[in-house]
Amino acid sequence: MARDMSDKEILKMELDQLKKEVSTPRTPVSANCTDTIAFVEGLLPNDPLIKGVPDDKNPYKGDKGGCIIT
């Protein structure tokens, strides 16, 4: 697409994109990190990777036997 455009058209597109980006609201990284940490810690009690899966809800545990590779 850009190959078919003149330099002036490409510069106009870049300028339009920069105008859009300058109006994007920005927040400090420290604020975003604080929000992310709070979000993750809020989900921590229900996280099966941290807490584990109860035996009655675990489809891979039970009397199904194991797998032996020979």
Automatic annotation (TrEMBL):
<dbReference type="GO" id="GO:0007186">
    <property type="term" value="P:G protein-coupled receptor signaling pathway"/>
</dbReference>
<keyword id="KW-0449">Lipoprotein</keyword>
<comment type="similarity">
    <text>Belongs to the G protein gamma family.</text>
</comment>
<keyword id="KW-0472">Membrane</keyword>
<dbReference type="GO" id="GO:0031681">
    <property type="term" value="F:G-protein beta-subunit binding"/>
</dbReference>
<protein>
    <recommendedName>
        <fullName>Guanine nucleotide-binding protein subunit gamma</fullName>
    </recommendedName>
</protein>
<comment type="subunit">
    <text>G proteins are composed of 3 units; alpha, beta and gamma.</text>
</comment>
<keyword id="KW-1003">Cell membrane</keyword>
<dbReference type="Pfam" id="PF00631">
    <property type="entry name" value="G-gamma"/>
</dbReference>
<dbReference type="InterPro" id="IPR036284">
    <property type="entry name" value="GGL_sf"/>
</dbReference>
<comment type="function">
    <text>Guanine nucleotide-binding proteins (G proteins) are involved as a modulator or transducer in various transmembrane signaling systems. The beta and gamma chains are required for the GTPase activity, for replacement of GDP by GTP, and for G protein-effector interaction.</text>
</comment>
<dbReference type="InterPro" id="IPR001770">
    <property type="entry name" value="G-protein_gamma"/>
</dbReference>
<dbReference type="InterPro" id="IPR015898">
    <property type="entry name" value="G-protein_gamma-like_dom"/>
</dbReference>
<dbReference type="GO" id="GO:0005834">
    <property type="term" value="C:heterotrimeric G-protein complex"/>
</dbReference>
<feature type="domain" description="G protein gamma">
    <location>
        <begin position="1"/>
        <end position="70"/>
    </location>
</feature>
<keyword id="KW-0807">Transducer</keyword>
